[in-house]
Protein: Protein-export membrane protein SecG
Organism: Mariniflexile ostreae
Amino acid sequence: MSTFTIFLALIVVVAFLLIVVIMVQNPKGGGLSSSFGGGGTQQLGGVKKTTDFLDKSTWTLATVMLALILLSNVAINKGGATTDSKALDPNATTTQPLPTIPTAPSAQPITNDAPEAESVPE
């Protein structure tokens, strides 16, 4: 198992946890739950501490995810290539063939001598 695969698995797990933590949070404006009578029951049982935990865990998971994404770039298998681009390499040569110009079939002048149509007897 490569290092990049491990980073990829960790990124997927952190993304799933981040989605769960964000979905559990209550919106700051109260949302629909406060308009249907649920606003009074939210004050019982230390909801403020739960909100602080969810807020801190959101920022922590987002920071961990950003760090994993940046570190996974280091772990990507480059495939053994040493040059990134031939456009940046001044010594690189291209192997594309030059386009060929089609030649004309013959160089005969064009004249207006069309064969005359036979006259039809009336």
In short: The helical segments are 3-24, 31-35, 47-75. Residues 31-35 have pLDDT under 50 and may be disordered. Residues 1-23+46-78 form one domain. The first helix runs from residue 3 to 24.
